[in-house]
Structures are given as structure tokens and as C-alpha cells.
Design goal:
The chain has 7 helices and 10 strands. It is of the alpha/beta class and 257 residues long. Helix 5 runs parallel beside helix 6. The two termini are 31 Å apart.
């Protein structure tokens, strides 16, 4: 089977009245030593706790992609922020979940179905430290804590460098396996590495995903394709003033590529 943008029959676009930031985190953990690859993707637990408490103080509601969807579609309005975590690290469960529960926030964690209970093996060629990923039981604990699981494929593949058949299988298997693990529909997808082509957007639509997120930087504005949602990266170096700029101003919008 081949896929193309032309084959995509239904294209759903956002209709939110105000820009909505969708935050993306990776690891909620102390950063490794200086000089370590991708050290920027670690956010210290105390920093994360301050950021979430600050959002609550300013009247924002942190939401999973399912709970955010009515706002993106323009069916509801309010002071909301999407919260997402890529890869499914165990430290999301241990350090982020208690904070999210404390403030009544929900979030979506994109897990790699074929690597549950293992490590971020896709990062080994880059020399990135190996960190435990959540097991199936831990994913269920995450969901029991009011959070959501999304799919990040079966093996964290680079879709544009994979044959169409492999890409489709990775996206489908990631979805169905996670649904078996958590016992509920998995309706949200994240493109690994942020790499994808129009045909992969078509695949996401045909597989029934409601949203798909990217690594393109921007808040989500009206008329954004819900299967190509940009996000706001939160990094180790993100101070509270910059965190506010990213959420409440056009700071990230100007970085859209």
C-alpha cells in the first residue's frame, strides 16, 4: 500500500480563538555531567515542580492531548496548556506524576511500545546515556494517576528513512500494543525525532489518530493541522521568566521553521 498527501481524505484543523502552547518535556531528572550529549533535554525535578506550580498560580490548566482537543477544535475556551512527554522515561513517573496529581493537571506521555521496560536504545549511536523506560505496569500506574498514553511508534524509528510498509507497521503496532497494555484507546501520536513527510500524516489519519505532535517550535494557532501540531520545548536552561515568555507571548512563534 502506498500513501500520499492526496490520499488523505479528511484534514482537521484547529479553531482555537487564542494561541495554545503544547509543552514538550523529555526527562525529568538531574542532568548528566557537562559535555554530555543532549544534556538540554533534562529538566530537574525541582525545576519541573516550580514550573507546574507557577502555571497553576497564574490560572492555567495543564491538560493531556485528549482533554486539550476540545480547546484546539474551538469547542471550549480557557487558559489552558497542553503537557506532553516524549519517549516514556521512568523518571516521568517518579518525578513528574506526583507533581501533576498535586495540581490536578493531566498530560500525555508518548511511549515506544516495543521498548517498554528497556532503555532509550535509539540514542546509543549518539552517546546519550541509557535511561530506563516505563514498563507496562508503570504505564498503567501513569494512567491510574489521571494521565494519558500516546504512541511514539513501536521501535522509535525514523519514518522518512523507513519503507512505507515499515512506517505504517510501526505506527499501527505502536498504537495497538499500547492499547493492549493500558486497556484504553490510544488516540494521539508523536513523530519520532520530529521527522516525517506528508505521507506519514496521511498514515496517522488513516490509523485513527486524533492528533499528532511535531518538534516544530510554536504555540498552536487557529488553522493548524491537528496531525502536525507544533510544540513549545522546555529545556534544562529554561528559567521561569523564559518559561512565561514561551507560554504567554510570541517568543516561540518567532522560532517556527
Amino acid at each position: 500500500m502506498t500513501f500520499s498527501a492526496i490520499e488523505r481524505k479528511v484534514s482537521t484543523f484547529s479553531a482555537n480563538r487564542r494561541p495554545i502552547p503544547v509543552l514538550v518535556y523529555h526527562q525529568i531528572s538531574e542532568a548528566p555531567a557537562k559535555g554530555s550529549p543532549f544534556r538540554s533535554l533534562y529538566v530537574a525535578p525541582k525545576t519541573f515542580a516550580r514550573q507546574i506550580a507557577w502555571l497553576k498560580l497564574l490560572g492555567y490548566q495543564g491538560l493531556s492531548m485528549s482533554e486539550l482537543a476540545p480547546y484546539l477544535r474551538g469547542e471550549r475556551s480557557g487558559k489552558v496548556v497542553g503537557i506532553t512527554f516524549d519517549d516514556g522515561y521512568q523518571n516521568n513517573l517518579t518525578h513528574a506524576l506526583p507533581v501533576l496529581i498535586k495540581h490536578g493537571f493531566s498530560s500525555t506521555c508518548y511511549a515506544v511500545s516495543g521498548l517498554l521496560g528497556q532503555t532509550n536504545v535509539w540514542d546509543k549511536p549518539l552517546g546519550i546515556a541509557q535511561t530506563p523506560l516505563m514498563t507496562g505496569e508503570e504505564l498503567r500506574q501513569w494512567v491510574s494517576g489521571g494521565q494519558e498514553i500516546g504512541s511514539h511508534t513501536h521501535q522509535h524509528v525514523n519514518l522518512p528513512t523507513s519503507a512505507d510498509r515499515i512506517s505504517h507497521q510501526e505506527m499501527m503496532t505502536g498504537k495497538t500494543e499500547l492499547e493492549s497494555v493500558v486497556g484504553q484507546p490510544v488516540q494521539h501520536f508523536c513523530y519520532p525525532y520530529g521527522h516525517y513527510e506528508p505521507k506519514h500524516v496521511t498514515m496517522a489519519a488513516e490509523l485513527g489518530f486524533v492528533t499528532a505532535t511535531t518538534t516544530q517550535r510554536s504555540r498552536c494557532h487557529a488553522h493548524t493541522d491537528l496531525l502536525q501540531i507544533p510544540r513549545v520545548p522546555v529545556l534544562r536552561s529554561t528559567s521561569l521568566p523564559v518559561f512565561w515568555l514561551k507560554i504567554a507571548t510570541a517568543y516561540e512563534d518567532r522560532r517556527k521553521k
